[in-house]
Design a protein that fits this description.
Elements lengths: L19 H10 L5 H5 L6 H19 L2 H11 L8 H5 L2
Helix pairs in contact: 3-4
Amino acid sequence: MINFGKALWISDSKKKHLSQSEKKKYYKEYCHIAPAVIEGTHPPTVKSDVYAVGVLVAMICSYCKYKLLKEIAKRWLKPFSTRCSAELLTLL
């Protein structure tokens, strides 16, 4: 995954405190960020990184239609399925 200088140590991660309009923007423009991070209920963690990879793979699946890759994405995102957007789930 490409980082663009956003990486930080887990011990340095903090919960986000976003306004409702900022949350709306994040959901729209940064769909790879885990909902719990956007909502501010959890700081970024390894789990939110797994979510981001699952989103990336789901997006790739929407273009290549490779069945095995789609199954991998489903497994990655399964723990988050109740919090995934409907748009993201349609990619799978």
